[in-house]
Amino acid sequence: MSKKIFFDFSTFRSGLLMGMADAVPGVSGGTVALILGIYNKLIFSLSEFLNFFRDSFTQKTSPNFFSSFQFLSTLGVGMLVSYFVITKVLVGSEGDEGLLLRPSTAPYIFALFFGLVLSSVKEPWQRVENPTLRRYALCFTAFILVLLYTNLSLNYEGGNILLIISGALALTAMLLPGISGALVLLTLGQYTVVANAVHDSEFSTIFYFLLGGLLGLFTFVPSMNFMLLNYRQDVMSVLTGLMIGSLATLWPWKESYDTKGVSPNLGIKEVFENFEILSIIGVTSFFFLGYFLYLALKSLENKANLPHETF
Question: Which of 54, 165, 265, 284 is deepest in the core (most CB within 10 A)?
Answer without folding.
Answer: 165
